[in-house]
Write a structure and sequence with these properties.
5-stranded antiparallel β-sheet; Alpha-Beta Plaits; 37% helix; 3-stranded antiparallel β-sheet
Length: 372
């Protein structure tokens, strides 16, 4: 039932089954492990203890194993560090080729016991399903090599470090979430071009959906303009007015409140200092920030959920998801998939809350994207 992928490299197929290293192909029926791997890309049945533990294996280590686990995990970490420092050819070999078998076996056995203990003693998080999608997406992105400043680099997404569940970059060599505009031109595709699908005013659309209103097909700021503005008001003016009202709980705007029911949404998803989102996240916060957390967290999870659908859509092609932002997905697009472009755009926009308008852009680097 429990197993561990020993090395994520596609050429390294050994798996630990609780007693020994065996070929991955001989692991039928094993469905519970620590973390996602590219070896498991076609295994939707696998459960991840990593999610139960909020990404921290030390936090779920049983007390009687603490000293033993600290000793063996530190030793293995030191060996791996020395392997990197010695510039060993890890790209064309497997980690178990370098770590002494006795040490590796002790490490995997201890880790196996912690994984089993986690599943048996920690409750399944109520928001497990969206966390699983985020975990799979980010692990696959983090394991892929991308081109940044002409060198092969990786992202380092973290799904646990923000209160709302928005993704963050943990000491990433590709700081995609915080990248300055002048740096974006240094980010280039591995395939033929970048394609970005970006929700039009994602947080406003989420608030609209949670207010039980249908999604407008047009740009939401133009739509707001037609509902709340005078003839002399511009799109930019109504946009500023809308966001100023949205993020200030003390602001009053009867026309906007007639469209976006802030009080109703807040009363439905916030109670006794806790936000509970439609994706079953539970976020402790105060009254002032409650609505912002509801909308921000839900919008982020919509983007994750839709991006996961695109992952499945492109699973048999060279096109891959390479980056996620808070309300957009960036694809490393292969030219032979051009006939899938419109379907992919439609899939991304077809959310559980209705059809969100999607802006699409393409470019040969991330700094020179043009809308199509």
């Amino acid at each position: 039932m429990y197993f561990q992928i020993v090395d994520n490299s596609q050429r390294c197929k050994k798996t630990y089954n609780g007693s020994s290293l065996v070929d991955y192909e001989n692991c039928a029926g094993l469905i519970k492990t620590w973390k996602h791997s590219t070896h498991l890309s076609d295994r939707p049945d696998v459960e991840y203890a990593y999610i139960y533990a909020n990404g921290d294996i030390h936090s779920v280590c049983p007390g009687y194993m603490t000293e033993q686990w600290q000793e063996i995990s530190t030793r293995v970490s030191s060996i791996v560090k020395s392997i990197h420092n010695a510039r060993c050819d890890i790209e064309n070999s497997c980690i178990y080729d370098y770590v002494p078998d006795s040490i590796l076996q002790k490490y995997l056995k201890s880790r196996h016991a912690i994984i089993q203990h986690t599943f048996e003693s920690v409750s399944r998080p109520p928001h497990y399903e969206i966390l699983k999608k985020a975990h799979i997406l980010t692990e696959e992105m983090n394991s892929s090599k991308n081109l940044y400043k002409g060198k092969w680099s990786n992202t380092n997404y973290d799904i646990f470090s923000t209160r709302t569940g928005r993704l963050s970059n943990a000491k990433s060599s590709i700081p995609i979430l915080t990248m300055k505009k002048e740096e974006r031109a240094h980010l280039t595709p591995v395939n033929d071009l970048f394609v970005e699908f970006d929700f039009n005013a994602a947080e406003l659309r989420t608030l609209l959906a949670l207010s039980d209103r249908e999604q407008p097909l047009e740009d939401i700021h133009e739509w707001n303009l037609s509902h709340v503005a005078t003839k002399s008001t511009t799109r930019e003016e109504v946009k500023k007015r809308t966001f100023a009202w949205l993020y200030n709980p003390k602001a009053s705007d009867p026309l906007l409140e007639g469209i976006y029911n802030r009080d109703r949404v807040k009363s439905q998803y916030y109670e006794n200092g806790s936000v509970k989102t439609p994706f079953f996240r539970n976020i402790q916060t105060d009254d002032r920030r409650a609505l912002n957390y509801i909308v921000q967290s839900t919008s982020s999870d919509v983007c994750i959920e839709q991006s996961y659908k695109l992952r499945d859509f492109f699973k048999d092609s060279r096109t891959k998801i390479c980056y996620l932002l808070h309300d957009s997905v960036i694809l490393d697009f292969a030219k032979e998939d051009v006939n899938k472009f419109l379907d992919a755009k439609s899939i991304f926009g077809c959310t559980r809350f209705g059809q969100y308008r999607v802006n699409a852009s393409i470019g040969n680097n991330f700094g020179e994207m043009r809308e199509v």
